[in-house]
């Protein structure tokens, strides 16, 4: 019975210290670390998009339709990896991609995380069409966007 009481006391003391640490230091840092100088040529940090490019990009969402429907960046095109060939054949997509190039906007493709690979595939498919030459892949993907959501406009699925 004594060990149960000791365990409860230990848990309570640990919880007090955890809450105290949270109050003093704040919540966990959820940002996605990124140093533009260390990125491959076609990869881009969210900070570069928001500060250097002032957010003047056309976002291309390479996640699944279900993820896109739950939440997405306002104005983003949905071109999921498993349907990239078909989606890039849709005239409205090609028109928006072409107009982004004419207007000097860069294309930034993102998927769920930095390691998902969908954005690499979709970005290559877009480059291969020849409709736009400045196609970048967002480092950290949707995870980076969610971590910095206060500076981006997202919308819920319809």
UniProtKB/TrEMBL annotation:
SMART domains: RHOD. Pfam families: Rhodanese. CDD domains: RHOD (cd00158). InterPro entries: Rhodanese-like_dom, Rhodanese-like_dom_sf. PROSITE patterns: RHODANESE_3. Residues 55-154 form the Rhodanese domain. This is Rhodanese-like domain-containing protein.
